[in-house]
Amino acid sequence: MLRPWKLEVMIERDSDIAIHSQIANKIIDEIQQGRFEVGMALPGTRELAIKLGVNRKTVVQSYEELIAQGWLTTESKRGTFVASRIFAVGYNPKPIKKLDFAFKNKTVIESKVSANKKAERDFIHFSDGSSDSRLVPLDVLSRAMRHALISIIRSNKQAYNEPKGSMILRQAILHMLNMNRGLHADVENVCIVRGRQMGFFLAGRALIRQNDVIVMEKLCDQLATDTFKSCGAQIITIEQDKEGIDLDSLEALCKNTKIRAVYVSPHYQIPTTVSMPIANRKRLINLAEAYDFLIIEDDHDFEFHFSKRAIMPLASLDKPNRVIYVGSLSNVLAPSFRLGFVVASREIIKHFGNEIMMIDRQGNTITELAIAELLHTGEINRHTLKISKIYEERRAFIAKLIRSELNDYVDFSMPDGGLALWLIVNKKINMQTLQNDAELEKVRFIAGAEYSLAGESVSAIRLGFAKFNNEETILGIKRLKKAFERQTNQLL
Q1: Is residue 9 in some structural domain?
Q2: Residues with Cβ < 8 Å from 453, sequence gap 6 or more?
Q3: SS3 sequence of 219-279
Q4: How far is it, in rounded angstroms, from Cα 177 to Cα 185?
Q5: How far apart are CA 30 and CA 36, in angstroms?
Q6: What whole-number distance in Å separates Cα of residue 288 and Cα of residue 420?
Q7: Which pLDDT value is given to residue 490?
Q8: Of 11, 170, 341, 402, which is the most exposed, with the fewest CB atoms less than 10 Å away?
Q9: CA 110, CA 382: separation in Å to the nearest integer?
């Protein structure tokens, strides 16, 4: 029988305790500590005797005592195993002392990933707007990764890369942003990060002092909120409408409160999907200049615009360098492919580099070189155009399906782009009950309350559609309809 571990026992030859008792005590101690689990196979008596340099009869005597006391059990022709501890004489598991740390950061973000992977496969989970990993161009990507790996091995470079990211990738990102998004930056304005969330964290670490005021919309990305709070920020929320953040309320706040930064997602607001008009964007920039605050612009899903020409980012209007622009290529490739970027003033990017030195010194050089190749050769642009058409078709399909199947329960306005819809739920529906009923039907969604900083109930659902094909979408919407019907039947 395969025993992948070795039993280490220190024998004290000069001890008053008999050697067979020393062996037995060591095994009991390992069981009490929880290191030897029920059913684990112990070494054979001959094998252990040779290892310890003792007579085999000594080991046999130890095992026989442990079997008699209920610590071990033996099976003919199979070996000796750790027995169920409830039968052991004097079993007294040693408590593990819990260390009482005084944590600086009290913010705890709980993971919602289920440990039951098998059960999860049966669920349809409408995420907050993830892309479909199955559409990744594996041949193209693997070739670029191979080229990057060969390049690194052949160059035999020992020095660390620039913490702000590989120069070749920063140049490729810069070209894309200046050409496609109207920015007017240079390479020293660009920093590579492992996705948008890391960009928010760096902004918090580098810029926020204790109790600095960060303004956010009443409904917004909770992870960004938690990140800024963890860096010492005081969060103040502002109402929002069909054009995004209420700028009148923001200006009134600025007249009485010193603001450090405003966080917005103006392209397709998280979670409501509304787009901030160009006039509002210009006014926000002017307010930042007048009241001396920064703007943290979350520009997720800029690539996926389906209606008319996309409005350029706030950063493209930013003559006074007030905007910290955070974007990502993760949804273009796959959610697990973590690569993002930040564009800001040279001074801010320099601070970001200092922070990265302490948490991510080397970065992911192979990935960075591979993505740089795909950007320079136009492969990412071609892939983006391809998947944009697929996602536009999926958006049209799910919108039609929702209107036919869920029209009695929800309403929504079609956004210009992005990979999610914001469904306004009938006020008669209890959202918590709906989520519980959805679990019974094996479908999940993100309720609007999860974006409320005040923890208020919100009669809305953010429904990501991009990761499912039409058959999967039909199944998910039908299950969601059954969840609605469960509650409406009870209301009748």
Answers
A1: no
A2: 216, 218, 219, 220, 222, 225, 235, 237
A3: ECCHHHHHHHHHCCCEEEEECEECCEECHHHHHHHHCCCCCCEEEECCCCCCCCCCCCCHH
A4: 8
A5: 6
A6: 29
A7: 62
A8: 11
A9: 37
Q: How many domains does the chain have?
A: 3
C-beta separation of 412 from 424 below 8 A: yes
Kindly report the number of other CB atoms within 10 A of residue 321's CB atom: 17
Tokens of 322: 């007030």
CA atoms within 13 A on the CB side of 387: 25
Quick one: 185 and 290 in the same domain?
A: yes
Please give the pLDDT value at position 358: 84
Kindly give the pairing relationship between strand 213-217 and strand 261-264.
Answer: parallel
Q: Which residue has the tokens 């997720």?
A: 300
- Provide the residue range defining the domain that includes 223: 134-381
pLDDT in tens, 134-164: 998 888 989 998 998 888 887 766 556 778 8
d(CA 285, CA 433): 42
Strands 443-444 and 124-125 come out as: parallel
* C-beta of residue 239 within 8 angstroms of C-beta of residue 389: no
Structure confidence at residue 39 as a pLDDT band (50, 70, 90): confident
**Burial class of residue 86 in the structure, from the number of CB atoms within 10 Å of its CB (0-12 exposed, 13-18 middle, 19+ buried):** exposed
Task: Report CA torsion sign: 206, 211, 212, 216.
Answer: positive
Q: Which of 215, 128, 250 is nearest to 453 (CA)?
A: 215
CA angle 207, 203, 176 (to 5 degrees): 135
CB atoms within 10 A of CB 88: 18
CA distance 206 to 129: 29
Q: From CA 83, how far away is CA 152, in angstroms rounded?
A: 52
480 φ/ψ angles, rounded to the nearest 5 degrees: -65, -40
Whose CA is closest to 479, among 395, 405, 400, 410? Answer: 405
Cα distance between residue 58 and residue 376, in whole Å:
71
Domain of residue 35, CATH code: 1.10.10.10
Cα–Cα distances (Å) from 235 to 230, 343, 444, in that order, read 11, 23, 29
Rounded to the nearest 10°, the torsion over CA 423, 398, 329, 262 is: -10
Q: What does DSSP assign to residue 305?
A: B
Whether 293 and 234 share a structural domain: yes
Tokens of 395: 């958006």
Per the domain annotation, does 100 fall within a domain? no
β pairing state of 340-343 and 410-411: unpaired
- Mean pLDDT within 390-401: 96
Choose one of 334, 362, 381: the last residue of a domain. Answer: 381
Residue 190: C-alpha distances to residues 204, 316, 410 (Å): 17, 14, 42
**Residue with token string 């990935």:** 367
- Per DSSP, the three-state class of 398 is helix
- The count of other CB atoms within 10 Å of the CB of residue 120 is 13
Q: Is residue 192 part of a domain?
A: yes
